[in-house]
Amino acid sequence: MLQALGLQAGYGPSQVLFDVNLSIAEGQVATLLGRNGMGKTTTVRAIMGLNPARGGTLTFRGEDIAALPPERVAQRGIGLVPEGRMVFPTLTVRENLVATAADRFRRASPWTLPRIFALFPRLGERQNQLARTLSGGEQQMLAIGRALMTNPWLLILDEATEGLAPVIRAEIWATLAALKDEGLAILVIDKNLSALKRLADRHHVLEKGRTVWAGNSLELERDAETVRGWMGV
Ligand SMILES: Nc1ncnc2c1ncn2[C@@H]1O[C@H](COP(=O)(O)OP(=O)(O)OP(=O)(O)O)[C@@H](O)[C@H]1O
User: Which residues form the ABC transporter domain (predicted)?
Assistant: First the structure.
């Protein structure tokens, strides 16, 4: 579904990604692992067209997306839950969700407000509240709901559980498992290896802008010590 080969990207004169290789099959959950500053967010930005690829290849559902601007990438069906959530603070929960709503692919059962509120009942209870008055966990749920309202084929979450209470984290992990069961492909950036091992099919470790390890959860178990070393945990 998504494949990056030898991906390169950076900011102005500084190159950050040198050789990122990443693949996510349909309906799979994949992870991007690595210490802070190793290029995970930059990889996401390259996929989304925010920091366009400068080398290598990037394909999504069989199409070359390397040169597409961000709005086109989103239209192709990649939904981003960015680092720091970035919900619209002065819009209500409902307005945040409606703002991005689109069903470009005429899905069999598209995401709607009632479906989002069934997934996150708390958002339903607070639908007329301004987003900035929500707790961190609720804002994260809203960010996920907003990405789902674009009816993506692939959902990307950058540090979605960071700074959240354990009980809220558990809720987010359970939600991602439910979305996977529905067939949604997901790319997760997170540091919680034990949750990721259960949820994800494939893992990629980044070190200084290069994919230095990739494998499934069994292989991750086998190479746990090495991977933990790369992650600094
Ligand atoms: N806007 C920017 N301008 C210049 N350099 C940047 C910018 N954003 C990030 N970088 C640099 O790019 C490198 C990779 O950062 P990136 O955010 O992709 O890492 P990360 O693996 O996602 O880590 P983190 O968990 O800290 O977000 C770092 O050296 C960082 O300093």
Answer: 2-233
